[in-house]
Amino acid sequence: MPRHFTAADNELIRSQLLASGLAHFTQYGLRGLRVDDVCRDVGVAKGTFYKFFEHKEALFLALADQRDQMHKADILAFFARCDGPVAERAGRFFDLLIEKLNSDPLVAIVAVPDDFAALLRKTPPERMAHEEEKDLRFIERFCAGLRAEGLIGPVDTNDIAAILTLLVSLVLQKSLFSAGQFSASCALLREVFVQKLTASAP
Q1: ∠ CA(186), CA(145), CA(72), 5° rounding?
Q2: CA 141/CA 186 separation, integer angstroms
Q3: Using one digit for the tens of pLDDT, what is the confidence trace for 121-132?
Q4: Domains and CATH numbers, the chain
Q5: CA 43, CA 48: separation in Å to the nearest integer?
């Protein structure tokens, strides 16, 4: 008979699958990960894996969502501790975002064109729309914090989100640039971001 898992069992197994998945994705990439290996690490059957995740791309997306929430919480917490002129604080926000993007192993994976294409094939359009909405809510929260302190006036958060989307695209295509080109491009985007964000500053 199939084993019945309690809610606590399910929570533990899912967290273990995520942890093992991160390790295997980091080592082998999206296409190189084998569900069998993840299941062996956790000590569950493949059927149990598919109870939680439809396919390995779904596991990747769950990890990406988990890490996205973690990074955003870290950035907002860091920013809440910052002081100084608003332009300087906006620049720190941008710099930390670049640091997060450059150091996250999942970002490095989707920077591989074939892995990115494989992921897109398994990502439903509504999931893409959901991710865009989450990013916009994050920007709105960030800007609302600045307005609450009286540091900026009204800001078009769609413009800010568009600039950060360009940054993500730039990081994903980093291999196409020389180190100097990449650094200069990031610096230019940083300048535009700060100017756009602080244009309405009192």
Answers
A1: 55
A2: 23
A3: 998 889 889 889
A4: 1-53 (1.10.10.60), 56-198 (1.10.357.10)
A5: 10
The two most distant CA atoms of the chain are separated, in Å, by: 69
Residue 193 C-alpha from the chain's centroid: 19
Residues 45-88: pLDDT tens digits?
999 999 999 999 999 999 999 999 999 999 888 877 878 888 99
Q: How many CB atoms lie within 10 A of CB 166?
A: 15
Q: Report d(CA 100, CA 108) in Å as an integer.
A: 11
Q: The pTM is what?
A: 0.86
191-194 — which CB contacts under 8 Å span 24+ positions?
192/163, 193/90, 193/94, 193/160, 193/163, 193/164, 193/167, 194/87, 194/90, 194/91, 194/94
- H helices present in the chain, as ranges: 7-32, 35-42, 46-52, 56-81, 86-103, 105-110, 113-121, 125-148, 157-172, 179-198
